[in-house]
Design brief:
The protein is mainly alpha-helical and 260 residues long. Helices cover 77% and strands 0% of the residues.
C-alpha cells in the first residue's frame, strides 16, 4: 500500500509538466545567480540603463525581462500544462515535447512583451537624456507604482485572472485535430497572453524595482501563484492595487518634497 503511494507520488513529481517547469526554472535561476555575481551585474539595475548603448540596453532589458517572467509567472502555469499533457498524450510519442511546446509559446509572448517594454524604457531614457522631460528615478518609480496599482485593481486585470484560473478553457479553444505541437504552442501563447495581462501592473513595477532582486521576483511569484490557486485569489487584486497606489503616492510625495 505504502509502496503504491510512493510510486504514485514519484510518478506525479516526474510528470512532464513538472520536469519541464523544473528544468526551465532551474535554468532561469542559475542564469540570474551567475549574472548577479558577474562583472556585468550592474546591467540588471534599471537606473544603469542610460550608461549603455541602445543595442546593449535592448538585449539586456529583454534578457532580464525573460528571467523575471519565467521566475514570476511560470510556476503558476502548471495546471494548464497538465491539461496540455493529458490531451496530447494519445496523439504524440513524447508528452515532454508537447509541454515544452506550450512553455515555448508562453515564453515567446513574454519575450515579445519584454521587447516592447524595452523600447518604451529606451524612449524614456532618451527623453530624459535629451532634457525633453525632467524626472528622476524616484518619480518614475512612483508613477509606475501608481499606474501598476491602478491596473491591478482594474476589472480587465481581474477578468484575465479569472480566465487564467480556468485553464481548460484555453485548451478547449485551441485543441483541434492536426499538429499536436503547434496546438500546444498556441495554447501556451494564449495562456501566456492572459497571464501577462493579469500581471502587467506588477511587471511594470518589477521593471523599476525587481529585475535585479531575486527576493522581489520570488515575492511576485508567490503572489501570482496565490492569486491563481487560492480559492479567493481574485479578491486579492484590489487590495494589492490599493497598496501599490498608496506606496506610489508616498514615493511621489517624498520626491516632490525633496526627501532623500
Amino acid at each position: 500500500m505504502m509502496l503504491a503511494q510512493h510510486s504514485k507520488r514519484a510518478e506525479h513529481l516526474l510528470a512532464p509538466e513538472h520536469v519541464v517547469l523544473g528544468v526551465t526554472l532551474f535554468g532561469a535561476g542559475a542564469a540570474l545567480f551567475a549574472w548577479q555575481r558577474s562583472p556585468s551585474a550592474s546591467l540588471l539595475a534599471h537606473s544603469a540603463g542610460a550608461a549603455h548603448q541602445a543595442p546593449t540596453r535592448f538585449v539586456v532589458f529583454v534578457a532580464a525581462w525573460a528571467l523575471m517572467s519565467v521566475i514570476t509567472m511560470l510556476p503558476s502555469t502548471v495546471s494548464v500544462l497538465t491539461f496540455v499533457r493529458r490531451v496530447a498524450a494519445p496523439r504524440i510519442r513524447s508528452r515532454h515535447t508537447a509541454v515544452a511546446a506550450a512553455v515555448a509559446g508562453m515564453l515567446a509572448v513574454w519575450c515579445g512583451a519584454g521587447a516592447l517594454a524595452a523600447i518604451a524604457d529606451a524612449s524614456l531614457h532618451q527623453a530624459v537624456e535629451a532634457g525633453t522631460i525632467q524626472v528622476g528615478h524616484r518619480t518614475v518609480l512612483g508613477m509606475l507604482l501608481v499606474g501598476g496599482g491602478a491596473y491591478q485593481a482594474s476589472p480587465f486585470a481581474m477578468r484575465c485572472l479569472t480566465a487564467c484560473r480556468s485553464p481548460f478553457g484555453f485548451v478547449a479553444r485551441h485543441w483541434r485535430e492536426g499538429n499536436a505541437h503547434a496546438r500546444a504552442t498556441m495554447i501556451g501563447a494564449d495562456y501566456g497572453r492572459s497571464c501577462l495581462a493579469c500581471c502587467a501592473g506588477l511587471m511594470a513595477v518589477m521593471c523599476a524595482v525587481g529585475m535585479a532582486s531575486p527576493f522581489a521576483m520570488l515575492g511576485a511569484a508567490g503572489w501570482t501563484l496565490l492569486t491563481k490557486r487560492a480559492s479567493r485569489g481574485v479578491a486579492l487584486m484590489r487590495p494589492t492595487g490599493a497598496v501599490l497606489v498608496a506606496a506610489g503616492l508616498a514615493v511621489l510625495g517624498a520626491s516632490l518634497m525633496g526627501v532623500r
